[in-house]
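fyi for ur records
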Amino acid sequence: MNARIIVLLLALVLGSTSLFAQSDTQRQLAEEYLKQSEKQKKTGLIMLGSGIGAGLLGTAMFGAGWNEGSGFVLGSGVTLMLAGTVSTLVSIPVLVSSASKGKKAGKLSLGIASIASAQPNGIVSQNYPSLNFSIPLNLQP
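which gave:
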């Protein structure tokens, strides 16, 4: 039983040289996902807001054209209302994609952590395997 534990710990220690931290490429990938997520969220919110605004303006123009009997205002209102509806509907998948990329930015990584424990002969540092969850918060290059 002890031999199995020793072999397992030895395998973890020897195989953990690449597990100490996320590599630069993983960090860059997470930062790239976060940047894309923020850009898509901004684009989706702009499309949503302008679509709702265009739809409301088109509805008002349609009502005014209907009351006045103006074919030009009526047609412009319908066109603007349809464009607003399309813009609003297209913003939904953009916002969903933004949320998906934001979730991908948070990464799980396996690593080795150390903990200091008090022993009768002094403070001893012990290593143990750990699961780390990181979310990059800074986007400065």
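The chain is about 65% helix and 20% strand. thats all i got for now
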